[in-house]
Write a structure and sequence with these properties.
The chain is mostly helical and 254 residues long. Helix content is 79%, strand content 0%. It is a multi-pass membrane protein.
Length: 254
């Protein structure tokens, strides 16, 4: 990791603040933070620096929205996510920066397109209101999104948009969306730490930079909590999808 200039440090601090905001308000906005970290730092190294920042944001989000999680959805996702994380770990053993950016950007744009198509075809009832066992199609969708979410979160910490699209397509409202996302990413991101250390993505130097950035997550989380109640549900959905598309394009074209 090369020496970081003051302007680069300021950009990383702003991106860390946005992590806090995204965790407590608009999850898809995380792709902007991912893009900033990848622009300032080498793409592979940026994933290791960003992970502890994300975990700090996850902890704050769980403290705020812990009671709104939908655990049947989480339990349905975790086995597939584990498969995706393992696949992402093997991918990171040989993939370079260009391969990481291109793969994740293409996946995000594809998933945004699928979600928009599904929303135009017709919405589904929110999962938190389901009383029957999930259908075969629902289980298949959870597995597909789970594998993609695990892969993208391991490769580039880009699982947020994938899981946001899954929760939106399943009909989650704001609080259920944020509570389920908070627990999901706290558990998944924490489980990624040993893999990231083993790949050399997290080391003493990256943790030193994290120590300087982690405090910027707190004001972002506070701002997100203050704003989330004022965001209209349709606007919320559109912001999540728009942030996903912009993040995907940035990764694909950079």
């Amino acid at each position: 990791m090369d020496t970081i200039t003051l302007w680069q440090l300021a950009a990383l601090a702003a991106a860390s603040t946005l992590v806090g905001f995204s965790k407590t308000a608009v999850s898809g906005a995380n792709t902007i933070s991912l893009a900033v970290f990848a622009a300032v730092l080498p793409a592979r190294e940026s994933t290791g620096v960003l992970l502890p920042i994300l975990i700090a944001g996850d902890i704050l989000a769980v403290l705020v929205y812990r009671r709104h999680a939908h655990w049947p959805t989480l339990l349905r996702l975790f086995p597939a996510v584990a498969v995706g994380v393992l696949a992402g770990t093997f991918f990171m053993m040989w993939a370079g920066d260009d391969a990481v950016r291109t793969s994740i950007g293409a996946i995000l744009l594809f998933m945004a397109g699928v979600t928009l198509w599904r929303r135009r075809a017709g919405s589904q009832p929110p999962p938190e209101e389901e009383t029957e066992a999930p259908s075969r199609a629902a289980r298949l969708k959870a597995r597909s999104y789970g594998v993609l979410g695990g892969f993208t979160t391991m490769v580039a910490n880009a699982g947020g948009p994938v899981m946001s699209l899954y929760l939106l397509s399943a009909g989650f409202r704001k609080l259920g969306f944020l509570g389920t996302s908070a627990w999901f990413f706290l558990i998944v991101n924490t489980s990624k730490v040993p893999f990231s250390v083993g790949l050399g993505l997290i080391d003493a130097r990256s943790l030193l930079l994290d120590a300087a950035l982690v405090l910027f997550v707190i004001p972002g989380a506070y701002l997100g909590r203050a704003c989330v109640g004022r965001i209209n549900q349709k606007v919320f959905d559109r912001i999540v999808i728009a942030a996903t598309v912009l993040g995907g394009l940035q990764l694909l074209l950079s």
